[in-house]
Specification:
10 strands, mainly beta
Length: about 170
């Protein structure tokens, strides 16, 4: 099924910055670049400007996702992944990155790809307060309640937190 692309208005705040584009057919995200060089020592974080601002149609939001290559090769993560760009926001898109590598600094040059932008349709909701929620198969299980990791030993008190790294109860 071929979909009609959603029209998004974009303003270049830096005249040389490339318009975000899909690297490959079928990609969900377009590449965002930084317009300023930066160097992050281990554990440091910074806010990288992208040189673009957008106007999304009502009913849409854009989500700034990290790049897997930066994470795998350099230990770079986004502090607030994904970052949310609401339809009403008109300011510059910025990316908050952190260097998680314990030993090596990471350097960004002007126009390095630093994140991906994914535009999605979002629903408006109305909240209805109730005294009790209806039951479900999952109930209150969360935060690792399905296991799947060698350190998993179960939950304590049904709070969804794993009891990891101790043979003694309560530790």
């Amino acid at each position: 099924m071929t979909r009609t692309p959603v029209d998004v208005l974009i303003r270049r705040l830096d005249p040389q910055v490339p318009i975000p584009a899909y690297a490959h057919p079928g990609d969900a995200g377009t590449d965002l670049v930084t317009t300023e060089p930066a160097e992050l020592a281990p554990g440091e974080r910074t806010v990288l400007p992208t040189g673009v601002a957008i106007a999304l149609p009502d009913g849409y939001a854009a989500f700034v996702h990290p790049r897997s290559g930066l994470a795998a090769r350099c230990g770079v993560a986004m502090v607030n992944a994904p970052g949310t760009i609401d339809a009403g926001y008109r300011g510059e898109i910025k990316v908050i990155v952190v260097n998680l590598d314990p030993r090596e600094s990471v350097r960004f040059e002007r126009y390095d790809r630093v994140a991906q932008l994914v535009v999605q349709q979002v629903e408006k909701v109305r909240f209805h307060e109730v005294a009790e929620l209806p039951g479900s198969a999952r109930a209150e299980g969360g935060l690792g309640s399905t296991g799947g990791h060698a350190a998993w030993t179960g939950t304590e008190g049904g709070n969804g937190y794993a009891s990891v790294g101790s043979d003694r109860e309560g530790q």
